[in-house]
Amino acid sequence: MKTGQKLNWTTYQVSPDETHHLIGKTPAYTRRFFHVLKFHSPGVAPVLDETGAYHINSLGEPIYSQRYTHAFGFYFERAAVSQQGEWFHILLDGTPLYPHCYQWCGNFQEAFCAVRDNLGFFHIDLTGERPYPEQYAYVGDFHDGTAVVQTEEGAHFHINPRGKPIHPYRFLDLDVYHKGFARAKDSEGWFHIDRLGQPIYREKYACIEPFYNKIARVETHWGALVLINQEGKVIQEIRKQTKDPFHHVSRDLVSYWKLFTLKTAQDLNLFDLLPSTLSLISDQIGLSSSTVEKILLALKEMQYVRESKEGWNTTNTGQLLTSSHPFSLKEAQELWMMEHFNSWHGLLEALKNGQCAFERLYQVKWFDFLNQHPKKQALYHRALSQYAKRDYGEIVKRINCSSYQSLADIGGSTGTVLERFLTQYQHLNGHLLDLPTVIDQIKIEESVRRRMHLHPCNFFKRWPDLKVDAALLCRVIHDWDNKRALHILKQVRTLLKNSASRLFVIESILDQDTGKGALLNLNMLVMTGGQERTFDAFHFLFEEAGFSVESQEPLNEVSSIFVLKPLK
User: Does position 433 have pLDDT exceeding 70, yes or no?
Assistant: First the structure.
């Protein structure tokens, strides 16, 4: 670094036109640049001129001879720079901290820095080394010893500098800890969590701020702005609610408007006709342009389609109801509009007498009905497969099968989940147990199919003579009442080889505090006589079946993973 008269760079400010630095209102040096940023320790600042980007000292002099495309501030005496699209960090003399390059680099915070390569984001330490092997869709800076990371599936959680999660919980969005608390978001809204990942109060909000001297400003889902303390108690309302509960109730009362608008759009095959113009759509479906426009405008209000100068097209939401989308819900929509819709008319009677509404209406149990109607059964399992593709995207990362030789998927439908495990673990043999008519529908890659052994099985008749290292029950238990669920669990226990074997149960947890899962609970009552269960109810059921809960953690915003160990 060049030497000169020592000046107090800590008093420097960036000029209003951002071309130089000021001491008060006086220029700190005579040079002018295209652009400058503020000074950082040990007294250098990034600048840009006709030669490129570099750093200067408090006299406005370059501190090294190299030039870059972009240069950023020094943190921990290391600065991020880029050169022709390649990013890396340099030391004060301009030399690279490490020999390779990244697609992007952040700034060092708490001795670690976020970087991105072609596989994703991770952190590096002050030597440029990786402190952990994992990669993520995004990582944030460390603050108070933790950083937020995001998986490809959109789950957020906190890690420590060694890359280890500091708690088992996953969220839709997340912030770093500030004075012991972090902002977190789930499907119901924002709230504050403690260092254990636990909510510190029950309420959920539209948005929240960090706590400032034990109070936080938050916005309710009704549009009110209030101040809360760390116990979640409202201590002051600073803006009254802007949304009217009257209209909220009114919308719910006519929610079937949307349901039948979507059904009509599918009956007309409207989503698969887009993008197109109004006149072309009119010709293809045989309705007048004014009639077609009515339903398109309704879909526009629902944000399923959009209009431009070129014509009409689907939004990202509308794409999910096209045939071509990889997670298409088109068949799921058809499924929910048939027997499910009819059965919900019997909710009141089901609540009164505890009898499954579907069974009372159709005089047969749901799964027996499917077995008697092959086309409906095929539709049901195709819809389940789409949900499995979307909801179980992370399951092979969260359930480590490297030490197992065999894995059974109980009620595994058409093999979507088991196929993921067999693809991930080339040594693994899979066993799929389901009804014969379901197994007949399995169509998967032949290389995987050779290691997938199929076992026709009715849960309430004879089970196959089989022993495995591990087993899966993905969203099976909620289909049944306690008596039948207990029967299934006890039968699965007989399949496990020894005390080192594990059963992985994927289920939603009914939250009595927030009501999350309660509508699905009603659906299970209506359709199968099953139920969603609370955390305590699951524990009781598992213990009755001869299992102890080794661990439990969220898989996604819908489901959790229970790891069960067989009791001696």
Answer: yes
Q: How many CB atoms are closer than 10 A to CB 447?
A: 10
**Is the CB of residue 388 less than 8 Å from the CB of residue 558?**
no
> What is the C-alpha to C-alpha distance for residues 184 and 345, in angstroms, rounded to an integer?
37
Q: Give the pairing of strands 452-456 and 429-434.
A: parallel
Average pLDDT value for residue range 187-211: 95
Q: Which residue has the tokens 């408090």?
A: 58
Q: CA 481, 486, 489: angle at the middle one, nearest 5? A: 125
> Is residue 6 very low, low, confident or very high in pLDDT (cuts 50, 70, 90)?
low
Place of tokens 């760079």: 9
Strand, coil or helix: what is 211?
coil
Q: Is the pLDDT of residue 392 over 50?
A: yes
Query: Are residues 142 and 166 in contact, defined by beta-carbon separation less than 8 angstroms?
Result: no
* Confidence at residue 393, expressed as pLDDT on a 0 to 100 scale: 79
Strand-by-strand arrangement of the 547-554 sheet: 452-456, 429-434, 406-410, 470-474, 502-507, 560-566, 547-554
Q: Is the pLDDT of residue 232 over 90?
A: yes
Q: What would the mean pLDDT of 438-462 be, rounded to a whole number? A: 91
**In terms of Cα–Cα distance, which of 312, 287, 308, 286 is closest to 299?**
312
Integer Rg of the chain from CA: 30
Q: Retrieve residue 74's tokens.
A: 């020094």
Give the number of other Cβ atoms within 10 Å of residue 151's Cβ: 20
Could you give all domains of the chain from N- to C-terminal order, each with its CATH number?
9-147 (no CATH), 201-243 (no CATH), 254-323 (1.10.10.10), 385-566 (3.40.50.150)
CB 554 within 8 A of CB 168: yes
pTM: 0.74
* Angle in degrees, 0-180, between the axes of helices 256-267 and 289-301, rounded to the nearest 10: 130
Average the pLDDT over 253-258 and give the result.
95
For 148-255, where are the alpha helices, taking DSSP H only? Answer: 245-253
